[in-house]
Amino acid sequence: MVKRRAEMVEETRAKLIQAARKAFAEHGYAAASMDDLTAEVGLTRGALYHNFVDKKGLLQAVIEEIDTEMAEKAHALSAKEKDGWKRLLAEAIAYIKMALEPEIQRIMLRDGPAVLGDPSQWPSQNVCLARTMEALDMLIEQGVVKPVDAEATARLLNGAALNAALWIAASDHPKAVFNKAVDAFKQLAGGILATGSK
Prior knowledge:
- This protein folds into 2 domains: 1-52, Homeodomain-like (Arc Repressor Mutant, subunit A), CATH 1.10.10; 63-191, Tetracycline Repressor, domain 2 (Orthogonal Bundle).
- The relative contact order is 0.11.
- The chain has 9 helices and no strands.
- By secondary structure, the protein is mostly helical.
- Helix 1 (2-27) packs across helix 2, helix 3 crosses helix 4 (55-78) and helix 4 (55-78) crosses helix 6 (102-116).
- 75% of the residues lie in helices and 0% in strands.
- The longest helix has 26 residues, at 2-27.
- Residues 33-52 bind DNA.
- It comes from Herbaspirillum frisingense.
């Protein structure tokens, strides 16, 4: 009985998140109607408020889901690289490239910061930061990267990737901006390579 109730709560949350994700992507956060999205999945506004408190809480849940997917996708794409430095770059570039996707542009990079504030302060960013620090520590130990402060460098690299993604999302010409952003990111990141490293 308790297990069934927990499953029903989780199912309700999932339905609301999927409906909201679709509504926010199509109409934007401000224009998305909570009545329409709850009706679309056969639920009431009460279910929304019970699970997420308000529309902002629902946006936060949608962003957490998308952010997790983005991190997994970037990590999977970078895992194809055997070289640690190339893997670090590939993960950041994969993240930047996702800014070309309309859903990510609208929800993660435009509405998210406008409603929830600075993306670098979102809890999900801690996972990316920890992963980048771990990669840097390994590369420093291997002599590939200069003996820099891993946390400071990880924050700056992640910040550069995030700002590149925000720039792309705000641009009238995202693909052209993507190419410039990736080139600049590689140049900046390359500054931490030890002399003689590839």
